[in-house]
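Title: Prediction job returns without error message
Component: structure pipeline
Severity: low
Priority: P3
Assignee: unassigned

Description:
Job completed but the reporter wants confirmation the result is attached to the right record. Sequence as submitted:
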Amino acid sequence: MSPQRRTALVSVAAAVVLIAVKLASGLTSGSLGLVAEAVHSGTDLIAALLTFFALGVAGKPADSSHTYGHGKAEHLAALAEASTLALVSVGIAVLAAARLAGWAHFDVRAAWWAFAAVGVVLAIDAGRTVVSWRAAQAYSSAALFSNALHFASDLAGTTAVLFGLVAVRAGWQAGDSLAAFFVAALVLLAAVRLMRRNVDVLMDRAPADAVDAARSAIEALQPPVALRRLRLRQAAGRTFADVVIGVPPGAVVGQGHAAADHVEDAVQRVLPGSDVVVHVEPAAEEAGVPERVRAAAMGVVPVREIHNLIAIETARGLEVSLHLKLPGELSLDDAHEVAEEVERAIAAAVPEVSAVQTHLEPLAVEAAGLEVDEDPIEVERIVVEATGDRPRSVRFLRTDEGIVVLLTLGLPGVASLADAHARASVIEGRIRSALPDVADVIVHTEP
């Protein structure tokens, strides 16, 4: 048995004891206040039983019919309890009014044993209020929290009954009926609060504080993401979040997944234990022409790679050229059809582009490379002339295509990416001119 259900079972036992003590004392002494408190404890017994069985249902894991779990069983139990409390409070108020109006004869006897019974009840009420409150906080249980509120109202109601008996002992019989009125008001107030809180959860009303916290956490992320939609719902103390974000359309799957992970972590930091689902969409309307062109072209299935994408403003409008890498085994007819499909996709996704020029290339197959011992002096000389420093590493690989130079440069960390690329391109060009036999030069820059 779970700790929550054990706590609910203790509440059941306490409610049975309280009903017996209050009802016996109330009937014997004629105190409407004690009888009202006995009825109040009767509703607590119903509530505790509902909580006990509801927690058994709510603790079940999610299944195919209840994909969000069974947590709302707690809120259904709390709503049923609140409705019962409201009806009972009205009945208590009617009976108290009848006594005060003289429609019902009453003679309250404030004997010592009545005061003793009230003392026992006060001790039990105080103890179970503290136990249920701590359990509700520890397990974030709506049903246990509702029980704690009711037990606290019992404590206040029993205190009012005590003052009513003191008034009767002093010779004022109406004090007991006024205490009953007070108990009825407490019950009704608690019922209204419980119904409002649990109806909000059952109707999936978004908790304002939680929404604000989640939104602020997502908007503070770096690098930023475009928050398209945020929906929250709660059940059994747990928050379920549905988030839609936009990322640049040129972002690869890994980048989109990383952005989703960051959003999930941000929401769980401010809403611990929440279940977060993040949907990633391309932020097409926020991206520039190159990003949208790339996204449209990569959406054509046979396209494996895109490079040398250039957008040029001409007298005819905006024109785009790009290189497409396709599987080498495709026939020219099939490759041409793919190119036309790419052009149609770009025209549909980027209407401001007036013309598209594609260059078709076969996708390179993996080549075997063997590191060879070549003299790097010429490469080092070119790098020193261009940067003032020796390269960090120079390697030569012999492939089926010829010699490939792998070069690593150290550049100032404050240099812009554009500047680093430009300097690498200059060095690459000089190496190709000095060593015309090389098949390729790959320059890696690092701070």
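Comment from assignee: result matches the submitted record. The chain has four domains: 3-202, 208-286, 289-362, 370-446.
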